[in-house]
Amino acid sequence: MSSSLADLFTIISQHGQPIVRSRVSKAYHFAKQAHQGQIRHTGEPLISHPLETAKILASWGQSESVIIAALLHETLELGNITPEQIKQQFGSDIATLVERVTQVGQVKLRHSTNSIFLENARKMFFALAQDIRVVFIRLADRLHNMQTLDAIPIKKQRRIALETLEVYAPLAERLGMGHLKGELEDLAFPFIYPKEALWLDKIAAPHFRHAQHRLQKQLVKLNKIISKAGITAQVHGRPKHRYSLYKKLIRPEINKDINSIHDLIALRIITNTESDCYPCLGLIHKLFNPSPHLGISDYIAQPKPNGYQSIHTRVFDSHGHIIEIQIRTQSMHEHAEYGAAAHHAYAEAKAHGTSGSQLENLDTHKLIKKMDWVHQLSRWQKELSSASDFVTSVKLDALSHRIYVFSPLGDVYDLPVDATPIDFAFAVHTNLINQIQAAKVNGRLVSLSHPLKSGDLVEIIKSKYPRKPSKNWLSFVKTHRARTRITKILQNKDSQV
Prior knowledge:
- It is a single chain.
- This protein is α+β, with helices and mostly antiparallel strands and 497 residues long.
- The chain folds into three domains: 3-192, Hypothetical protein af1432, CATH 1.10.3210; 194-334, Beta Polymerase, domain 2; 401-490, Beta-grasp domain (Ubiquitin-like (UB roll)), CATH 3.10.20.
- It is 55% helix and 11% strand.
- The chain contains 20 helices and eleven strands.
- The strands form three sheets. Strands 1, 2, 3, 4, 5 and 6 form a six-stranded mixed sheet that branches. It has a three-stranded antiparallel sheet with strand order 10-9-11, with helices on one face. A two-stranded antiparallel sheet has the order 7-8.
């Protein structure tokens, strides 16, 4: 057995998913034979790529079927292997999964308004809705390709990095895979903005060192007070991702002043149980003064639509610096880092030995049912005949940065940044857009163009009689689909919203 394959088995054993070692070994040797003599741009044998992809998926706790499909995922396209051969050797589920991974292909952003992008985008989101395992494999595939991007021809580097930044990283974020999103962005950053990356590294390095030194003292204090309270928890720091820091620095209100950044390093408290999270919050506020204007965000009581759970609080340390502290359980932490992948892995482990692939598909279905945006994309595919409309909807609505607002009933709605009450109304129900009279945010009347913020409570005041949208709404609505539908109504092309 090769040492690389042994490494894969080590990772699998560390992350607890039960496998049949002989089947994984068989898949590796099958793929190795299919790729015999093929070399990557790095100079390594081609088999190294599917193997590394499988290792990434194993580190996410993925199932045997996902790992085997990852090992085989290049064999149809590059290995002169047929789906029937895979079916004979590994069964119909694996064969179908490998076929779907191959069919999805890469979403190309060059000439992104043409039919090729449209078709690739549709394949990607159809695959997500059908079998989330396809997307996990594609994301792991993209991560390893980004880790070795400097080995490919320079003319391709920027295109692949741009695809990663505009499609794959936002997709990871939408799936709740925060750690992967940060990794992909940081890997793409220097290929798209090389000068800016060098500038950031130059100015940030001393500030990171200072922040680490300063926060080390806070870690000691936190550990001491939590331990004294009889709570078992891990306390550690997390440096801010490079690209995330860069985006924050170029905001007009920051104006490249790194001294204005308060979360260069965030402190994290990982508890054993949810019941320990809130006492930890109280202990933090005993030790440090809370920042009144930044406040507390309780995503445990009100999780984000992608499943993210954590308590965020901002406090002043002993030097007067604002630091962010996150409190969550180990399970919440795994879901925050790996999102849908962690959820799927957990479901697989829980169900092991009872239903096999059928339960895997059932758990996938349950997960996808919670992702309204996936179903929204499926509807767009049918409704938007124009490639450019679909592309715009994907980029602006589905993969944009998000805020999370609440209805008066406590339902959480996921909207683009700076969305308005009009966008909210459309998200609640498409018919509501014909009944809007006014809007309240946090109990106060606001204009219909009012930009919403995460945590806002939004209420639409309905008119007694149907009324057409105002043409003026088109100047401030943020969601592309709402804009399209309003335009149709105003043009009398769509009487039913």
